[in-house]
Automatic annotation (TrEMBL):
This is Universal stress protein. Pfam families: Usp. Residues 1-134 form the UspA domain. Belongs to the universal stress protein A family. It comes from Rhizobium anhuiense.
Length: 155
């Protein structure tokens, strides 16, 4: 169905990441490509002096390893992209760079910050030059309490 899919994996649960990766694999054309992307949000400059010098590099390498391991575990061939910046802008930029025809994201429980600042999903939907698929399944409703107890955060 889709030639190039950007699969945005946020700081949610491992369960959500697995669900998104399965969906991306199911929607990708034969010979198509999946770009698994994670964005490490910008750190305010006033906090940089409190962090080790190699914080950003370490965070990128750690995220790449986790995503590559998960893809390998699931048998999904994908390119891993980890960037630092504003998540919505980075997702839209990578989609444009890769000529993607789909961005796949998950939603989360809305909170007050979404009303004040708008959510990442809202911004991506408004600015993407390609289709956007939003997985709205919330983890607490996914596969019952037994699997939920085993679930851990990916990041």
């Amino acid at each position: 169905m889709y030639r190039t899919i950007i699969c945005g994996i946020g700081t949610g649960s491992r369960q959500t990441a697995i669900r998104l990766l399965r969906r991306a694999a199911a929607l990708a054309d034969e010979g198509g490509s999946i770009v698994v992307m994670h964005v490490i949000e910008n750190i305010p400059r006033r906090h940089l002096t409190e962090l080790p010098e190699a914080f950003e590099t370490t965070a990128i390498v750690d995220a790449e390893k986790k995503l590559a391991s998960l893809c390998k575990e699931m048998g999904i061939l994908a390119t891993i992209e980890v960037r630092i910046g504003i998540a919505a802008s980075q997702l839209v930029s990578v989609a444009r760079e890769k000529s993607a025809d789909l961005i796949l994201l998950s939603s989360h429980v809305t909170d007050i910050t979404d009303y004040v600042f708008s959510s990442i999903v809202d911004k991506v939907v408004r600015h993407a030059g390609c289709s956007v698929l939003i997985d709205r399944r919330l983890d607490h409703a996914y596969e019952g309490a037994a699997s939920q107890a085993e679930d851990v955060a990916l990041f």
